[in-house]
Records
---
Amino acid sequence: MTHGEDDYICSRKEFSEKLEPGTLAVISSGRPVQCSLDADYPFYPDNNFYYLKGLTEPDTLYAVFKNGAGETVEYLFLPEPEPEREKWTGIRMRADEAAALSGIENILPRSGAADFLADLADEAKIYAGDAGQAVHQRFAPGSADFSEALSRCQLADVGPVLARLRLIKKPWEIDLMKQAVNITARGLNDLLGELHPGMREYEAAAVFEYAVRRAGAELSFPTIAASGKNGPILHYETNRNKMKRGDLVMFDLGARYCGYAADVSRTYPVSGTYSTRQRKLYDVVLGVQKDLISAYRTGVSLVQLQETTVELFKCRLPLAGFKLPEAGIGAWYYHSVGHSLGLDTHDGTSRDLVLEPRMVITCEPGIYIAEENVGIRIEDDILITEKGPVNLTEKIVKDPARIELLMK
Ligand code: GLY
Ligand code: MN
Ligand code: MN
């Protein structure tokens, strides 16, 4: 399945249906942020902006005005070409391309946006921005650009509207997520083939990242390659440790394809063989994870799934011979069992989310025992359907015997 302007038009139609008549909504792609004298941080468009148009241009504004009769007109404000600058940093998108990609007819110069929108705001009752946009990319109610025009409007936040739309994936979004999963699978497979004692965590991460980059994808988030004592650090990012025989190494990583993220965790034995105790603990986590996945059904809440995770660990760890910590299971399991996944790795999740068909939710229980230098997390990406859970990351090996076989 391919996706194109019709898909974004459909998303924008859903969005504008949620707006009150008399609303002017404006969403920005954001601005690049400088990281040193002569370079910016890599630019990623704001995901709510990207979701509605599939465009990645910086400093671009999308506006939709819904008049009192409920009719909508859309505008895109695109920065004007700067030929001198383009000699250094490349050709920027032109109006005709932006129109073709987004399906928006009214493409206007970015420099005129404030005046144009101020005039529109005169006709509007409500000015809606996205208050959740990252601080450096903010173009929300309260922004100086519109303070005069906005003083006459009631202000609204469209962030929650977009978060809700983004929770329910369209078929083409699921297709892109499957492609992100395929690239992630390839990278992890390469990694399994190369993992050995003496390797640095960053070397292992680089094997994965090479597979991602050469597939034309990006990383969903900085790769976590946490071996030995780093295993219990949930979002460990240093990745400098030398991996030792006898250590476990927990990888939490993912490829991001056309904006859509995969998010997978696997825990491997550096030597190629789990110790007896590591294997026992691994089997507990894997057993709990498999049971949880089967509970990922419509109507179940993340709160319930979290409670189930805790109960399962409390029951199964002692059965496997592990004495529970005196401080309680929270000393060994200290994060949420899952979150919605999509354009963001943590995609519009609230803790009281109730599962619905076409959501993609991670399932990632873990046990972390700092005194034993052990962190085991197993994470899959689960598509909720009317017929039950579909594990999008099913083919990424997690069976311990198969992992050992692949590492031989
Ligand atoms: N990689 C972050 C998470 O699994 O939530
Ligand atoms: Mn996750
Ligand atoms: Mn993860």
Note: Residues 135-142 have pLDDT under 50 and may be disordered.
---
Amino acid sequence: MHDVTERVYEHVLKTDPDQKEFQQAVYTFLQSIDKIIEELPEVTYHKVLERMTEPERTIMFRVPWIDDEGRLQINRGYRVEMSSAIGPYKGGLRLHPSVNLSIMKFLAFEQVFKNSLTGLPMGGGKGGSDFNPKGKSDAEVMRFCQSFMTELYRHIGPDTDVPAGDIGVGGREIGYLFGQYKRITNTFTGILTGKGMDFGGSNIRPEATGYGLVYLSEAILRGEKMELAGKTCLVSGSGNVAQYTVEKLNELGAKVVTLSDSSGMIYDESGISPEKLRYVMNLKNVKRGRIKEYAEKYSGVEYIARNPEEPNPVWNIKADYAFPCATQNEILKADAENLVKNGIKLVGEGANMPCSVEAEKILMGNGVLLAPAKAANAGGVAVSGLEMAQNSARMTWSREKVDQELRNIMNNIYKNISEAAEKYSEKNNFVDGANIAGFMKVSRAMLAEGYV
Ligand code: NDP
Ligand code: 2IT
């Protein structure tokens, strides 16, 4: 690495020695910026990289709530406000027992450049809690969300910070959070995105991340004269992003043969048809069941339980394209080797940072087209930006209009990251392309705004 980028990375290692995920996100980013840093002396002089790797503000707070047995429970809440250089802080809330400051900071850091790539005026942030929604009643989730918002409300606002969903936060949680904000502040305003259609939500927001992932992957494939139709795809996860990825892949004539959750995966060689997908949506979103039940309902389906000590079985199935849509580091070295061995030609990252540094190197080193998360899953936050625009205008756009805007945004992202890749790195290095294209705008804004 160049000594400037090296120094920034060393500083992160020294100041946050236990934040492995944050270090990983910064490292991958700096590897790309390394290729342009010599051409940008003002970035070095004005310490843009040093500022980018230090959140503008980190909020950590206690979340007390009462469970159904009347016992007091305590969780830790977070909001990392990483950058407001190009707009109000924007990014999701994650509810998962694994949540810690390192995970919040990696997500907030990546969000800054992802949001920049959308072309919309949104800064970057992320929040959440180590609360585990699994097995909790609706009433418990509601009491948790109300308590979480009772602290968070003072830090957010439609022109300040606008949270949304992520793992463990969907329509139900956004509704409870919104209700509590409204009650405390006596204002009905766009402080969250992903709201229900009856109270200020946007058409296509639930679909946006999955649809956007497929639109961007399609654009990359088109650039290589490759097709989606008739191809076999692997999808991991079975939540919001996975579901709408499958829906769009089906619509475009591809066949999806896997889904998973943290307990295991299903392999349905005949393909997850639209009817079977409807079953999955009801199973996961309404009944809050496990993916194992799919294999019990449909014949000819294999269920493989997950053993965290072994490579992830989803990535060991012969197919054409793979779409990780569960969580960070779900593709490690051995998984990447399996993907290459099984002839995968494209990996589209629906999840944030699903590939380890080693895995990324193996995939790209073997000519696999890698659509990085910052670009590939930007459709979700892009439509969140459109929800903010609709809220400000007190309007609701049609499904067709939002879908068309989403397509335009994803096609623009493809154009920008492929041009940046060719100019500063090499053709089809979309990792460098996304990091560099996302960085440029934020960096210019920071230089213009002075030392803040
Ligand atoms: P959901 O909560 O709807 O679904 C998450 C899915 O991933 C579930 O199937 C879950 O299984 C699985 N999963 C979660 N954590 C783990 C883990 N540690 N190990 C194995 N499986 C796991 O979340 P989303 O679909 O919204 O999010 C999925 C990914 O997409 C995340 O990386 C998120 O950051 C990213 N993303 C989401 C966006 C959005 O708009 N929602 C936008 C952009 C990116 P289980 O039920 O067993 O926990
Ligand atoms: O990672 C992400 O981009 C999201 N979870 C969506 C953020 C948003 O504000 O819609």
Note: The pocket of (2Z)-2-iminopentanedioic acid (ligand 2) is lined by residues 90-92, 111, 114, 164, 166, 193, 352, 380-381, 384 (CB under 6 Å).
---
Amino acid sequence: MNTKDIQKNNPWQRALRQLRAAVKRTNIDPLLALQLENPDRVMEVSVPLRMDDGSVRVFQGFRVQHNNIRGPYKGGLRYHPQVDMDEAKALAFWMTIKNAVVGVPFGGGKGGIAVNPKELSLEELERLTREFTRKIAPIIGPDVDVPAPDVNTNGKIMTWIADEYARVTGAAATAVVTGKPIGQGGSEGRTEATGLGGSYVLQYLLKKRKLDPKNMTVAIQGFGNVGLYLARYLHEAGFKIVALSDSRGGIYVPKGIESIGAVEKCKEKKGMLAGCYCVGSVCDVSNKDVIGAREISSDEILTLPVDIVVPAALENAITEKNAKKIKANIVLEMANGPTTLEADAILEKKGITVIPDVLANAGGVAVSYFEWEQNRKNEHWKKADVFARLKKLMDDATDTVISVSKKRKVSLREAAYITAVERIASSATPKP
Ligand code: GLU
């Protein structure tokens, strides 16, 4: 990528342009607009680490607190070599918007460490997480800023953070992070929440358009926590999942994947999806001819002839280079920021419906809010109750975004941004 491309695909620059476009359509106080263009606080820390072999390395860590007008800063921590300040700023901003779109009482935050956690041992990962926690401890807390899992982070990592936070501050504070394991104060359904939430949003939109999901074909890029649960729930609802991919490649099964569970098991065994052709619960290479399946790359998956395509991996998956080739009628953005501005314009021109990330993937933070609420009240809700609350919240948010989009004659993304910016404005204390 040359410098121009990097600048163009810079997520923070994109976030700013999205914000300015939405602000133009509202009459919010220019001072508030300026506040939203500038994160409240950014923190960069260095995290020196002794490796298992005795060598030493230093990693860069980040936490961005974008805005807290509607409540404590809230958003994930990701461990990925691509993590940097501009990415964290954009992701924190998208959290501010997302939390306002689904109406949870949080602002936006995000952060992470520039590291490939797959190269670390479990002990190194724990030491890295604890050292990072010590560095950000002064600016997080249940009423201040509440981290959660994101790319390559999970419940175990959240437990280390909560534990280290308690050691540093001398006060146990379960609600300092969400996405914890159930035994450690986590909520039922948090693991499934992002995928399940996305399936609710999609089904609500289809119902509004009087479209039957039965046999609609779906291709999903990304088979981490989000892609996996989305695949499971859509399959259960009658959609035909024809393609799945992870960072190392994927499978295309035009007749539809019979069992997502079988593919999941196969991936666990092989360490990758490629080659996991499954008939019923039997996965092997010879099935390839029986069911007409083939391997595909994680780029090709986005341009398959399907009804719905789902980017559920990282930013900038759909760019001006592949947007023209997209054949689906609906793009369900389960990753954060998967579509560049140029690609967004191309998709709109082609009449493709883009269900924006700030709505589609908000199920995760919605259940994070339920977890935070349970922790504060010392309660533990049943899974069925969590799912019922999640459904209501996602349905309401989707309904609002669809009606704003109709009323204001704007895309679903713009409608989501307008809704969020106006909600933030109405929560703000006017400044002289
Ligand atoms: N990392 C998730 C997101 O991007 C969840 C954040 C949270 O639960 O706070 O929405």
Note: The radius of gyration is 21 Å.
---
Amino acid sequence: MARPVFRFAPSPNGRLHFGHAYSALLNADFAERFGGRLLLRIEDIDLTRCRPEFEAAIYDDLTWLGLNWERPVRRQSEHFDDYRAAFAKLKEQGIVYSCFCSRKEIADAVVLREATTGQPWPRDPDGAPLYPGTCRTLSAGEVAHLSASGRPHSWRIDMAAALALAPGPHLFKRFDKNGEETTCHADPARWGDAIIVRKDVPTSYHLAVVVDDALQGVTHVVRGKDLEAAADLHVLLQALLGLPTPLYHHHDLVLDQVGDKLAKSRQSESLAEVRGQGATPDEVRRRLGFSPQPTPST
Ligand code: GLU
């Protein structure tokens, strides 16, 4: 039987914190217990925020923690053509459209609709207002005119059209710590007309992750609960692109002393800092609920 394939997929836009360490160690722990392989993927599509020194620090921190992963490492910024090819397939199906709206324009449109209807406008699982569909009905002439004016645009999935093409039910499997599997229903519609290709790069997190998991043969996705709802959209993209759906496990997030989620943007204590203060890898592993590093056999 083929060995299960796990992956840890950090973004090199800051130093790793305890939340990343937990996710990486949990992937390694699953891989070990399930007789699987562990891959590392560098998710660096955000060309303005990702930096080579953070990538180097990821390798350094993970090695310090005692982790081993297969080489070569897949770096997303080197595979934009793969994402372009996947996007072309969605385009051929007529289920994407160009969106020229700025965030401010979307926010204004939503305020207006809320004022007119007296009802709160629906939000996506990240808390952002669902796209009100302004650009969905642009004519080919209007799109050509706006493009020619040099206005940057993203590409959105036309959720209703996509669901008409792939009505589902969109079933996928979750697995728990013991490998027990449960079948679940994905609800992609909660994302509305999500951005599939950003203005600045030829992909989005959602498209890149789905393409990469398939190309790398990932069978088991282990990541934080903050990405749990993303699976609803990923399962739809997999159906539209004819890609396999891996099994998913979304783990609890590591919280700080006041119960907030750790985040690079909140300057959460990094692994580098605790290393600098003299912590050992085993202390970090223990603090996160993992057993000490096995001593290498001689
Ligand atoms: N790159 C994402 C992050 O650093 C993880 C994506 C994933 O595991 O699907 O949060």
Note: Residues 18-33 form the longest helix (16 residues).
